[in-house]
Automatic annotation (TrEMBL):
Protein name listed in UniProt: Oligopeptide:H+ symporter
Keyword check for Membrane: yes
GO biological process, one term: oligopeptide transport
Originating organism: Undibacterium fentianense
GO molecular function, one term: peptide transmembrane transporter activity
PROSITE patterns xrefs: PTR2_1
PANTHER family documented for this protein: OLIGOPEPTIDE TRANSPORTER-RELATED
Transmembrane intervals: 20-38, 50-69, 76-96, 102-122, 143-163, 169-188, 227-245, 251-270, 291-308, 335-357, 369-390, 402-424, 436-455, 475-496
Length: 508
């Protein structure tokens, strides 16, 4: 095992405590303090919008961090510098608890810092391995994910208590201290790390090949260019989407525009990619095609994230209407998620997977992820059933939320923990940071689904239709998201059957 790994793992544990420490009390703080000037009937929706807009930012900035690391500064420098930005964001939250502008500035800096380093720490771990010891990499990625949840568990348990008894400045300040410790620990290992140098001015880089394919007129220079027109359509739709800024917000609208351009541009490039053989080497063209195949898988995972991240918003708000001990805060229930992760990761690796292997079932990364998406859909059927009981006026204990938490956490371990190593192994050597950032971009798209769903139910026609079904808006959305996720699981399974696995670890 590479000796530098403990520095990265310890850094991640402290950083995750800092992130989840502030994230898991954010909705409660918004509802009880920062948004008190908003009418009570609108406050819940506004708190959810602020929360999911922040999450969108966190998982959008990996694109910037991945590009800076792969093309300009390298992973180590980018992680270190953005970690300092991250620390500044925590300081803003602690200092501006009563100032909306200052507080939102802090959220922006945390989104930039946390999002920017998010794909890099995972891929930086992968860089410490090569073809000779890559069998250890999956174990380290599991340990990496375990330590994430170790930090998240204590943050979820303690920060609501600190918020209640010591106020927002302390509750947001403690995560800031942990982030400073994380940065210092990472810096301590600086002389031990394997550093893969950035590749700049590559004439056959991913985006260069994509651009060549979209603009190519073919060998005869007279062929039609459907890929180009499709890309133009993506740009047109993205511009049209900006008119929805009043409904979903600036951040969500801009991210939606980017996703449309990337989606239509990617399909357009795929259609014309063979035209640039001879202009670019076969290795570069095949690499682009493999990346585009990978991005389809990432797109099919987005419904999982739209459900998973609502445990910190929708599920917390549901818990407010459930019976519980007086000392227990609704947001403390989230501590159950990382606690279950810490149990399920070793259980799966040492009990479940070996048991399935002895039964003749091959547990591949893609099978894990498809099963995880389906398990998450089932969790939301259960939580929708709980909502029906609440809407019916029956008192229901918060203990019942353990069932959906267990199902969704099982899905999380199969999707998220597996996906980190999967994304790294499938990425070309020169694109490790960018591809891992695309993995995290799927979280952004998942949260976009949430904002779009929240926006759609505000219309009178949709609300009237939901009422005609005898359901509350909340229950209807829960069952809608469950069906959305189960459909995605089916599509993922069908697409995964023809996906060709790659092994892109560096040579020793």
């Amino acid at each position: 095992m590479p000796k530098q790994i403990p520095f990265i793992i310890a850094n991640e544990g402290c950083e995750r405590f800092s992130f989840y420490g502030m994230r898991n009390i954010l909705t409660v703080f918004l509802m009880t303090s920062l948004l008190l000037s908003i009418p009570e009937e609108l406050r819940k929706g506004e708190a959810k919008n602020v929360f999911h807009t922040f999450v969108i930012g966190v998982y959008f900035f990996p694109l910037l961090g991945g590009w800076l690391a792969d093309r300009v500064f390298g992973k180590y420098n980018t992680i270190l510098w953005l970690s300092l930005v991250y620390c500044a964001g925590h300081a803003c939250l602690a200092m501006f608890e009563h100032n909306m502008t200052g507080f939102y500035t802090g959220l922006f800096l945390i989104a930039l810092g946390s999002g920017g380093i998010k794909p890099l720490v995972a891929s930086f771990i992968g860089d410490q391995f090569d073809q000779t010891n890559r069998s250890l990499a999956q174990k380290v990625f599991d340990a990496f994910y375990w330590i994430i949840n170790f930090g998240s568990f204590f943050a979820s348990l303690l920060m609501p208590v600190f918020l209640k008894h010591f106020g927002a400045s302390v509750a947001f300040g403690i995560p800031g201290i942990l982030m400073f410790i994380a940065t210092f620990v990472f810096w301590l290992g600086r002389k031990k790390y394997v550093r893969v140098e950035p590749v700049s001015n590559d004439p056959h880089a991913f985006l260069v090949v994509i651009r060549s394919a979209i603009l190519s007129q073919g060998a005869t220079r007279t062929q039609s260019r459907p890929g180009l027109w499709l890309t133009f359509l993506g740009f047109a739709l993205s511009i049209a989407g900006l008119f929805f800024i009043p409904q979903i917000g600036v951040v969500a609208a801009l991210c939606s525009a980017l996703v449309l351009v990337m989606g239509f541009g990617g399909v357009g490039a795929w259609m014309q990619l063979e035209r640039v053989r001879g202009i670019h080497p076969d290795e570069a063209i095949d690499g682009v095609r493999n990346v585009l195949r990978l991005l389809v898988l990432f797109a099919l995972i987005t419904p999982f994230w739209s459900l998973f991240d609502q445990k910190a918003s929708t599920w917390v708000l549901q818990a407010d209407h459930m019976t519980k001990p007086e000392w227990f805060q609704s947001s403390m229930m989230q501590a159950l998620n990382p606690a279950l992760v810490m149990i399920l990761i070793p259980f799966n690796n040492f009990v479940l997977y070996p048991l399935l292997a002895r039964g003749g079932v091959k547990v591949t990364a893609l099978r894990r992820m498809g099963t995880g998406i389906a398990a998450t859909g089932l969790a939301w059927i259960v939580v929708g059933g709980l909502q029906l009981e609440i809407d019916g006026g029956d008192p229901i204990t918060i203990v019942w939320q353990i069932i959906p938490y267990a199902l969704m956490t099982f899905g999380e371990v199969l999707v998220s923990a597996t996906g980190l190593e999967f994304a790294y192994s499938q990425a070309p050597i020169s694109m490790k940071g960018v591809i891992t950032s695309f993995w995290y971009l799927s979280v952004t798209v998942g949260n976009l689904w949430v904002l779009l769903a929240n926006s759609s139910v505000k219309g009178e026609a949709v609300t009237a239709y939901i009422q005609s079904l005898g359901l509350s808006v909340t229950a209807f959305q829960m069952f809608f998201f469950a069906g959305f996720c189960l459909c995605a699981a089916g599509l993922f399974a069908m697409y995964a059957r023809n996906y060709r696995m790659l092994d892109n670890y560096r040579q020793a």
